[in-house]
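Quick note —
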Amino acid sequence: MERLTRNFAWLAAANIIGSLFTALLFIYLARTLGAEAFGHFSYATSLVLYIYNFMDLGLSTYGIREVAKNHEAVSDYVSNIISFKIAVAFVLFIVLGIINVFCSHSLLMKLLLAESSLMLFVSALATEWAFQGLERMYMVFISFSFTPLIQLLASLVLVRGPQDLMRAPLIIFFGTLPVISIFLKILKFRLRFGIIHMKTLKGYMASSLVIWAISMFTQVYNGLDIVIMGFFRKAEEVGCFTVARRIVGGFSLLLVFLANALLPRLSATFSSDPVEFRRATTRFLRFAVLVVTFVFVPVIIFGREIITLTVGSQYLAAGTSLKLMVMALTLVVFNIPYSTALIASSFEREVLKQAFASACLNIILNFLIVPKYGMIGASISFCAAEGLALIWVLWAYNNKIGFYQKGC
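Predicted structure written out below.
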């Protein structure tokens, strides 16, 4: 358990420090740009982040698994997977550009979408998953700490008001390149395209597509609500809701990062050491409960005060939405340990069924109640989707693995 504890510590530190700098960047942009400009920026970046799901195809999680099994092949996995992602990113960039030209958005929004689309290439070049597979979590810490710090420092210099809105996406893009370049060199990345490469990828895809589908459907009920609100509500309300959504998303990412630290250990012990498998799952669950007690509860109680102190009173309308979604996060806390265990045990299809059902529920509720109730409607949709997710995952875990085992 020493290695698992060390992995938890590095990824927790990466998330905490990275979240701190990201939060400062988020607060600075929200305050400096103002609710309307920040709403435009949030809509553009959220749309591009959602499209990212169609590029990864589950290959990052697959890469973690395979690199953990064979450290010596890390350069091959990195070269094959990233080369494929670059090709997909290029196709998505062109498709999004064509749609952008013919859509009814204002010229300002079209330019923002074009700039934000560059993040597709950044996502393609990301290599944190490889270091997670190698269990060199300190490299993830370096990436998650230095990248937002660079972006924050550049924003402090170059973004001084709403008139600098167009600079924000470019700062986010160029701020990622230094760490990415260093990591690619360390991992000996080589660009690969060809028949042999495509045959190798075919084998990868057979295992990764189910994981990709889980990620895609999960993203639906963890981010599409901002996009839907952009269709029906004013930019100011989108900006306010984004404040609440980003706070909630930050907490969710903490649990996801820790789950990634757990995944290699669970994969290795499910068949060989079921006692250790259950012990690791239980340990993660206990940690998650501590997060609820010492983080989520204070946010629920002091949500309005937190918003005022961070981004300012102009975003106070997001207070009720923040409390509702943070309460729903307590459901996520109990979901993630068991869903991670299911994926590690090759029962990812059960998680896929849950993600699909929750995504469908979220979409239906968002289109039914967001047009009339706005932020509150989106928050209720999120709560309902997470409630269904927890019930489904607990049932699947008990059915496939079981909560109890003699001798454990």
